[in-house]
Amino acid sequence: MKPITIIGGGLAGLTLGLLLRRRKVPVKLYEAGSYPRHRVCGEYLSGRALSIIDSLGLRNHLESSGAAESQDVVVARGASALPRHQLPRPALCISRYAFDRLLAEELSRAGGMIETRTRAPTEAGEGIVLATGRQPSAIQAGWRWFGLKAHARGVRLDAGLEMHFSPHGYVGLCRIEKQQVNVCGLFRSRNPVPDLATSWKKWLGGEPSSLLHQRLQQAEWEESSFTSMAALSLTPRKSADQIGLRVGDALTMIPPVTGNGMSMAIEGASLAAGPILEWSSGQRNWATATGKVSRLLDQTFASRLRHASWLQHAMLEPFPQSVAWTLCRMFPGFPSVLFRLTR
Ligand SMILES: Cc1cc2nc3c(=O)[nH]c(=O)nc-3n(C[C@H](O)[C@H](O)[C@H](O)COP(=O)(O)OP(=O)(O)OC[C@H]3O[C@@H](n4cnc5c(N)ncnc54)[C@H](O)[C@@H]3O)c2cc1C
Q1: Atom of ligand 1 nearest to the CA of 120
Q2: pLDDT for 318
Q3: Residue range 4-37+98-136+233-341 in CATH 3.50.50.60
Q4: Fewer CB under 10 Å: which end of the chain, C or N?
Q5: 8 A C-beta contact, residue 151 and residue 177
Q6: Residue 168: is its pLDDT beyond 90?
Q7: CA dist 131 to 7, 46, 265, 336, Å?
Q8: What does the alpha-carbon distance between residue 184 and residue 188 come to, in Å, rounded to a whole number?
Q9: How many CB atoms lie within 10 A of CB 271?
């Protein structure tokens, strides 16, 4: 079997490594950081990836690490909230601190070689998969997008997931392991925001009159879990237009409001594994394996990326936000429709 090199040890790279090791492909993975580590992420895992997690036999491990099942959602805007809504399928909520570490341990156990604290060159080539995370973009249509995440205790929630919208962005709250709540927000600003390391609680804490502010009033923040990420690019990208075999955010980022990026990283790894195995065992050359992966990824993700772009716009522009809010009020099943369309 020919060996594969994976650059980037987030969910996409680690899942791909594990799937390939289970089929005896030699795997070497380079990760710039080390495990465990916090990531900017809403830590709400929902969608088709859950069946891949099951097929890898990882659900029990996640549950014994404290992953919380989330069934319902409350959507709020300022001080008002819509009634609690049951979502079509439950999600699993677990910190990336625990999740990525668990996958890295599983990959090592399966015989994968992981080199941490090593930033590898990101040039495409035969036998190389780029799983390096988002492709940064400083400004998009005049906006600077940034994400903030921290864990807190002492936060009471009315549903497994709460989404709080404001004119600057939104904050999601979900229960994760060890009685903690993940507080994660996506924001936009016309100007640079240089003081995030000191002002993050203000951004995440919401306007003083909001329900979000009320929720977080008693929060005991886990200061060491704070992370931020700037230069987010939310424009969908097609695999066919890019160089090299890419999975996860290195391929394209789905707007985080969908809570589907982790699933896409895991699904993308699963779609790529078959053609890579065929290359490794000599049944295909690299160019045809890459072409097949590219087609599978573009076909699988096109529709949800299209709907997600529309949803992202509707959630953040004032007029579409009011329309979406009214639709949710009038048709209680509307959030479930959006949920289905972005998965
Ligand atoms: C604000 C926000 C909230 C989100 N909330 C959710 C949510 O609730 N649910 C959900 O499903 N998704 C969510 N997402 C999306 C989700 O976090 C990503 O889609 C997911 O992390 C993608 O995984 P990945 O493995 O592709 O990339 P990453 O997790 O970013 O991993 C990439 C890895 O590559 C490493 N790396 C990069 N360059 C190199 C190099 N040259 N050499 C070696 N290593 C390298 C990095 O250190 C990193 O560990 C959210 C995203 C944001 C920004």
Answers
A1: 42
A2: 79
A3: yes
A4: N
A5: no
A6: no
A7: 6, 20, 9, 31
A8: 14
A9: 21
The number of helices, as runs of H, and strands, as runs of E, in the chain is 10, 14
CA angle, residues 269, 294, 120, in degrees to nearest 5: 60
- Order of all β-strands in the sheet with 245-246: 113-115, 27-30, 4-7, 128-130, 245-246
In testing the pocket of ligand 1, which one of 14, 29, 41 has its CB within 8 Å of the most ligand atoms? 41
Strand partners, 188: 145
Residue nearest to atom 9 of ligand 1 (CA): 259
Q: What angle do CA 58, 60, 65 make, to 5 degrees?
A: 95
Ligand 1 mutation pick, 37, 226, 262, max ligand atoms within 8 A of CB: 262
Question: DSSP string covering 27-83, please?
Answer: EEEE-SS-SS---S---EE-STHHHHHHHTT-HHHHHHTTPEEEEEEEEEETTEEPP
Of the chain, the percentage scoring pLDDT greater than 70 comes to 100
Distance 269 CA to ligand 1 centre (A): 13
> Is the pLDDT score of 343 beyond 90?
no
Helix, coil or strand: residue 118:
coil
Each domain of the chain, given as residue ranges in start order, spans: 4-37+98-136+233-341
What spacing in Å lies between the alpha carbon of 172 and ligand 1's midpoint?
17
Q: Which atom of ligand 1 is nearest to the CA of 185?
A: 1
Mean pLDDT of 229-255: 93
Helix axes 261-280 and 11-21, enclosed angle (nearest 10): 40
Averaged pLDDT for residues 288-302 = 97
Residue 331 Cα to ligand 1 midpoint, Å, equals: 34
pLDDT digits (tens, 9 = 90+) for 75-129: 999 999 998 988 888 999 999 999 999 999 999 999 999 999 999 999 999 999 9
